[in-house]
Design goal:
By secondary structure, the chain is an alpha+beta fold. The chain is built from seven helices and 18 strands. The strands form two sheets. Strands 1, 2, 3, 4, 5, 6, 7, 8 and 18 form a nine-stranded mixed beta sheet that branches. Strands 9, 10, 11, 12, 13, 14, 15, 16 and 17 form a nine-stranded mixed beta sheet that branches. The protein binds pyridoxal-5'-phosphate (PLP).
Length: 357
């Protein structure tokens, strides 16, 4: 049913990391990667599992000059029975195609991408960490490879998947972070590429991140790009507030990324009978509600941290502290449930996990 995947095995497998507790994030790569090419008129061809290694690229390659590319981020988890699971992987491939659409990149068969990932993971299964909280980070990405400096839609692309064993996000336990509400720079604007996962969005966010760090804040909270009045996201996470016993998050308005953790938080909270609303949240409303003591907790959501509690936010000269700067009960409950599902320790009543082995 699927095209045959070519296989070229590494002759000398690398040493596995000695201490999985010291892996950090995205620094170590496995023995193999997946690669597939797109050629206009032929479609996606040559699916291949091959040794991990550098790419030979022409300096005029389009991705290097005009940034036509997209990526995804997901993880493989070791279960207590020794098997390997993914968490809602179909949603990552669905989103990759959403990003592809926005960047003018041809669609890829989502079931084939999942099949190819499973085949790669079977080859690399010994690289999935066994240490609690550590996982194998999965980075699918696409780059435009036309050799041509004219600005145009590329006729050739490369789809690749690389794998990186990574340590637990919270090696010292879950700790709330402080956030700077950015009122000068913007990350994305409706009609732009904000809801696509593409390299340029990150490039656009780096200066603000650098300046926030200089002021002593860990991350930036982005406002909308038009009026700079409404909350959008935190760094590379979606954001939630508990206001008057209701879980509130910015609606997907075209510039907010469709986080899979965001969707899982919403669906799990609803499953638990918690009222959730996706709507526009003005920063003025947030400050007012916070000052009136109506916000009991705040947190970010994303694949890397799962849940990242927010202890304090600063907007201009006004600071708000949530839950005395400590992790709130809903943040903790969601974190425990989602990581429990991912690592195969919690009952999967919603059918979110996908077993690779
Ligand atoms: C990837 C990403 C998120 C989080 O998405 P998840 O699917 O939950 O990992 C949020 N915001 C931005 C800008 C992102 O790139």
């Amino acid at each position: 049913m699927f095209p045959e995947i070519n296989r070229i095995y590494a002759l000398e497998p690398k040493e596995k990391p000695q201490d999985e507790g010291k892996l950090g994030f995205g620094q170590v790569f496995t023995d193999h990667m997946f690669e597939m090419d797109y050629v206009s008129g032929k479609g996606w061809i040559n699916p291949t599992i091959k040794p991990y290694g550098p790419l030979l690229m022409d300096p005029s390659c389009m991705i290097l000059h005009y940034g036509q590319g997209v990526f995804e981020g997901m993880k493989a988890y070791r279960r207590p029975d020794g098997g390997i699971s993914l968490f809602r992987p179909q949603l990552n491939f669905e989103r990759l195609n959403l990003s592809n659409h926005r960047l003018g990149i041809p669609q890829i068969d989502e079931t084939f991408m999942l099949h190819a990932l499973v085949e790669l993971l079977k080859v690399e299964q010994d690289w999935v960490p066994h240490t609690e909280g550590a996982s194998l980070y999965i980075r699918p990405f696409i780059i435009a490879t036309d050799v041509h400096l004219g600005v145009h839609v590329s006729k050739t692309y490369k789809y690749m998947v690389i794998l990186s064993p990574s340590g637990a996000y919270y090696s010292q336990g879950m700790a709330p972070v402080n956030i700077y509400i950015e009122d000068e720079y913007i990350r994305a604007v409706r009609g732009g590429t904000g809801e696509a996962k593409c390299p340029g969005n990150y490039a656009a966010s780096l200066l603000a991140q650098l300046e926030a760090e200089g002021k002593g804040y860990v991350q930036v909270l982005w406002l909308d790009g038009i009026e700079k009045k409404y909350i959008e996201e935190v760094g590379s996470m979606n954001v939630f507030f508990v206001i008057d016993d209701e879980l509130v998050t910015p609606a997907l308005n075209g510039s907010v990324l469709h986080g899979i953790t965001r969707r899982s938080v919403i669906e799990m909270a609803q499953h638990w009978g918690i009222k959730v609303s996706e709507r526009r949240i003005a920063v003025a409303e947030l400050i007012e509600a916070g000052k009136a003591g109506r916000i009991s907790e705040a947190f970010g959501s994303g694949t890397a941290a799962v849940i990242s509690p927010i202890g304090e936010i600063l907007y201009e000269d006004q600071s708000l502290v949530f839950n005395n700067g400590e992790t709130g009960p809903l943040a903790q409950r969601l974190y425990d449930k989602l990581t429990g599902l991912q690592f195969g320790k919690s009952e999967d009543e919603l059918g979110w996990t996908y077993q690779v082995t």
